[in-house]
Amino acid sequence: MLTLTDKLFDARSLTQKEEITIKYCNNLKTLSKCKKDKVAAILVSEDFNQIYSIGINGGPKGQDNCLCNSELSKFGCVHAEQNCLIKNSNTTNAKIMICTKEPCVTCAALIVNANVNIKEFWYISDYKDHRGLKILENANINVFKINV
Ligand SMILES: [Zn+2]
Ligand SMILES: [Zn+2]
Fold it and tell me: What is the three-state SS of 57-100?
């Protein structure tokens, strides 16, 4: 069973609706064509009744599927969180971003700066750099780790 842990290491089990949504996000990453890593992110309402946007990491639509180790870019693929943010069109309703991976510093800054009203960030696997989480916490976005 999946559980959710906050920064104080209090864990709770997930509702069926939350669990199904997380599994959907985790399945979504398999669509990524990135040669380095496969990541997916979704924006969902706090009651998990509505999905606003989905994103996977990759290159520009209809062009190179992966920009990692490409002569086109030294920055690699567009991250899942970034693609999820730019495809969202609702700015008012409170949202949770679910991502299969902990955010990098750039994505965390974009999540803070975007006019999207993200209240919580839930992620599955750790990233080597934890400064992204610090940026989210400084902006009062609550961070939770999903234990699968
Ligand atoms: Zn890539
Ligand atoms: Zn990122």
Answer: CECCCCCCCCCCCECCECCCCECHHHHHHHHCCCCCCCEEEEEE
Write out the residues surrounding ion ligand 1, Cβ under 5 A.
Answer: 34, 36, 66, 68, 77
Does the pTM surpass 0.85? The reply is yes
Counting ligands in written order, the one closest to the CA of 100 is: 2
Instruction: Confirm if 141 and 108 have CB atoms less than 8 A apart.
Output: no
Residue 142 β-bridge partners: 120
**Ligand of minimum distance to the alpha carbon of 66:** 1
What CA–CA distance (Å, rounded) separates 71 from 147? 37
- Block means of pLDDT (10 residues each) for the chain, 148 residues, are 90 96 98 96 98 97 87 90 98 98 98 97 96 97 95
The tokens for 138 are 């400084």
Q: Tell me, in angstroms, the distance from the centre of ligand 1 to residue 10's CA.
A: 35
